[in-house]
């Protein structure tokens, strides 16, 4: 068996660090109860909660100052370190960890010293320049400059800890420690949430004197938020010490970093250009409205959600092909991929854009109508979403174009496109205030300017692509765009008109929960009708997307199942297919089947910007032109011979498919001018000589056209090499199985056929594709197959795990070993039902997940793999976990043998008196007889256990021998049990690491109920629809619970926001449910008189009331009350009546007040004396925030000279005092 060097060094072979036990990292990995997936989900939930609390507690004005100040350290950290660390340093760090004798400790110390120095310099420079930057962003604007400056000073230290946190996480990942880095952002979010709650509960106001930094609420907000980021970095230091990483200063620059100097400069320039746009646009927003920056940021955040979930997921299938074809210079293939990518984008995002545009205000009310973020503010945010929703289409187009340019190593073209985007955005944004006077409309149109800028960038990208690739014949794209846009607009507008029914409209305006229900109803109607009509219109891309969904639904709705084929059709389908498939036919079929292989959603960043793909390592042909790549086997995922469910049901055992074969595309003729034949060889030989050789397999190298970066080698067997790699496009780890990595196999000759029974590399890849249909926790999902001229790569899901040798060394109990292997047995049975085999032949292939499941980590089905060999492999894995011995030979993994050598770090099995491997129970008397018998009889071949289903059944029964089994129903071979999905709890005692595999025995009742569920699923596949429905229900419950908590926290009795308003009286609902369209047009109206309005016998003071007309000091305030905001339960409210100089129809106004949280109503009257509220008409109501509060009258108000400001809720001041202060009021009308 050949192995590539350097070999992976198990943690157990290293000196103990810090006095810890050797190998503790591996045992700790199994004992760990934390999951990276759970941590990521928790981080998303807590991040969303933090954002909503920020808006609800601070309000738009303070939130704008907060967002500007909080963005600055993130941008500085990203500029000086973040992008360079991600694109360049991490691959070199992995390489140093593998190559250096100290596992990269010296390299890390130099990197830590350089990073600390750069971040420290950036912090000092930022602090010095902060007054200038803050003045540039908010100077002379409506955003509080003093508050922003104070927060910037307290937030800027975060930039050091942002950078250090990213560096610590990268270093821990190289030591297989993922949990700490994944949970660190959760800790940050928790601290910041606690900070916001503390800020809300503290007495006093955030009235700031810029020269006084001791204001308590300001200190809590600033220092508490910074402590969250500090904790995010410091929480990782104990884990680094446990992993043997020491934080020491060491000066110097590693030579390996010097090679990336020019690329680092390019990345810094790229990020710098993007940040110029933010610094240029933010002053426009801050001058337009005090809440403008926050509204702009929240609108962009909402738009990123559908793109990240839908756009990225659908384009994932196209991006690898597009990148490889662009790198190879294959013009026709690039045009095809551009067409597919564009059509998928249109089909996926155009309906979403239409929905966001029409229902934007409802989205704002559903997500943000809490506390200080009033319904008026939520309407403002929703309108901003509507004005900028269309940006998703050109934004996605630009990302597709950049991928093509980066694949062709034209790095400066994307930079030019980004420069154009930023230039157009700045120009249009500065033109908006010159053309529009309305403050809200300015913020909304600045978002539109961003969309137009990306549209210009997309147009520029198309022209550049046309110049590089030639004419772009994209007729299908135009047709799909026209069909999708037409249907989306018609359906969305129709649903909007239907939803204007009085009851539904009242629900939309009744508060956040009502708006959420309204939005859910409208969303389901819109998306269902749009895609149903597109399917009836026979749009090909929609049919391709709906095909797998229909197959899933057919499991539960028999009417959706396709009709069974007739007997002649079945006979024809079983006949061998000997026709020669054209390459475009293979690709067309594969595009329809691809979703069955790749289904995992990518990670979604909080703010998805324009990515910098880095430099791709693309092997070049020495004597080939761009056209040559169209004739040979390109890197492709193939699905033409995946077994259908009907086929798999007809096959049994390891019966191979009849004789399905595929002819290879013919190589180019020898007389081609661009590919001359060798003098002494034919065309086929010349083609073989010119076949590209792959890059050297070392950590840090990139393969498959720059798609995957190698991280760590995990052994190999019989021409296969196993690697962990990083998917650069999707930012996730994958498992790579290199088939014929040295490319020693001959290039297929002209007219050669790929047989599924062959031994060549292409046959191995074709057989392995069958495993893409097997869904089990005992098999890493096959995501992709990359084909080369001779060999290829199998891409599988990477599951955090430990090697079989490391786990066997922890001496797990027999029950734990049985539980682990039964998952692998379930995967083997699923593969056998699909007409495939796992090829369990070597310890390097099998790993143990954090859940305690043994699984095939590196799929690659060899020619001699069969059902019998898999059963023998299951016994070998169980034998290794029981005795820490491997009973199969190292060369083929098919012969039961004994000896004194080692196989992948596991000693060979000891021999008994007959020369056979010693029986486990004879070596260790505590092993149950049933488990020992399974291990022994599976190694006997045809004379023992013959099927994987039997292995799984016996291990299921053996693993519950220590619990009551009277309720355990019989396990049938036709529907084998899956291994439990729940992860075992970590052992509390670190001295017994083997507990992680066997604690918490499965109760009989739980197995019985699970078996009943699984019997409804053919082949033990996951019940995907039920899981999706359960996840959606859980998400809905979380959102509703979040709404209830926030509403109760921020005053749920506010009739304009919260849950309680859903059950208010009909009169109040009718008043508050008025729609909130764009601000009305009006002119300022001078106020001539003001009078106090108080219907109680004990009236409030009218002292200084006349100052509300002029804004002079001292300001008028109500009397002081105790026991809450309801005027001590003595009266319903107090206010004043303003007399205007002439009758007008009130359209808008401004109330200036320092009393944040007071609730106010604006009413019109018909005479200068009001004796009850019945004599007035409500035109606006809401909660005040500190400073100027602009309100807009949503309906046509009656013409009058009398406007009453009525205060219904007071603000808590010092101690238990409640009162409201009004500085000035002004009105506009028409």
Structural overview:
The protein is α+β, with helices and mostly antiparallel strands. About 50% of the residues lie in helices and about 10% in strands. Among the domains are: about 30-260, no CATH class; about 265-550, no CATH class; about 1080-1230, Galactose-binding domain-like (Jelly Rolls, Sandwich), CATH 2.60.120. Strand 10 and strand 11 (about 855) form a beta hairpin. It comes from Tsukamurella asaccharolytica. It is a multi-pass membrane protein. Its main location: membrane. This is Virulence factor MviN.
* Beta strand count: 26
Specify Rg, calculated over alpha carbons. 34 Å
Mean pLDDT: 71
User: Separation of termini?
Assistant: 88 Å
Q: How many helical stretches?
A: 38
Name the poorly predicted regions: 1-34, 207-214, 569-693, 961-996, 998-1026, 1046-1080
Structural class: alpha+beta
- Oligomer kind: single chain
Beta content comes to 5-15%
